[in-house]
Amino acid sequence: MDAMLTLNTKERDINIAASDYRKQGLLPCVYYGPKEKPVSINVSKIDFLKVWKEAGESTVITLNTGKSEIEVLVHDVSFDPVRSEVIHADFYVLEKGKAVEVSVPLEFVGISKAVKDMGGMLVKVLHEIDIEAMPKDLPHSIKVDIGTLTDLDAQILAGEIKLPAGVTLVTGPEEVVAAISVAEEEIEEAAPVDLSAIPVVEKKGKKEEEGEGAVKK
């Protein structure tokens, strides 16, 4: 298991505007769980971004409140719609002794013979899968070896992914994770047009006008 990721927290006074805390470099957050009422807190925004980058939403983070340590997962992150900056985060408190269900990102590794030697294209159908595990067994990501894709009709199903010890697949085992796609052939060049088959249309012009003139005489 990775080294423990910890964030120091301070209780947040909800009577003070969240924007005032943000000006101080703090990130307003809240943690809650099945047996935990929502508690408003602040954490250092810089520290949060560092931990979140490493933990994602599937690695356990320890919140140090000064009185106790609480194991959580990042549950939701809110962004400013204009500047795209993180402005709030939710933490989900884990129950000790109980497995948790999370979505874990997939990391595609290896080299596919179908892509390298046969001109196929790798199509990543899923970028994460749902798993269940005890908090201590939660992986940060799961590797998918595309080296098994050796034919142009090859594919990898969720049930074929090798999972770490203590991890159970929740995503349907028949779900396609990755597959090889064959590029469509370029449209064939159109056959040359047989000009002799096109009826000749006489040009209208001076002769008709002359003929019309003759009738009028």
Q: How would you describe the overall organization of this protein?
A:
- With 217 residues, this protein is mainly beta.
- The protein has two domains: 92 residues, Ribosomal Protein L25, Chain P, CATH 2.40.240.10; 81 residues, Beta Complex (RNA Polymerase Alpha Subunit, Chain A, domain 2).
- The protein is built from four helices and 14 strands.
- The protein has a seven-stranded mixed sheet with strand order 1-5-6-7-3-4-2.
- Strand 6 and strand 7 form a beta hairpin.
- The longest helix has 11 residues.
- It starts with a strand and ends with a helix.
- The relative contact order is 0.13.
In terms of quaternary structure, what is this? single chain
Structural class by sheet pairing and helices: mainly beta
* Main sheet specs: 7 strands, mixed
- Give the SSE string: EEHEEHEEEEHEEEEEEH
Distance between the termini: 108 Å
Strand content: 35-45%
CATH superfamily of the largest domain: Ribosomal Protein L25, Chain P
Helix count, DSSP H or I runs of 4 or more residues: 4
Topology:
Elements: E1 5-8, E2 10-11, H1 18-23, E3 26-33, E4 36-44, H2 45-55, E5 61-64, E6 69-79, E7 86-93, E8 100-109, H3 113-116, E9 121-124, E10 128-133, E11 142-145, E12 155-157, E13 168-169, E14 176-181, H4 206-216
Parallel strand pairs: 1-5, 3-7, 8-11
Antiparallel strand pairs: 2-4, 3-4, 5-6, 6-7, 8-10, 9-14, 10-13, 12-14
Tags for this model:
seven-stranded mixed sheet; 14 strands; Ribosomal Protein L25, Chain P; 15% helix; 4 helices; 2 domains; RNA Polymerase Alpha Subunit, Chain A, domain 2; single chain; four-stranded mixed sheet; elongated; mainly beta; 217 residues
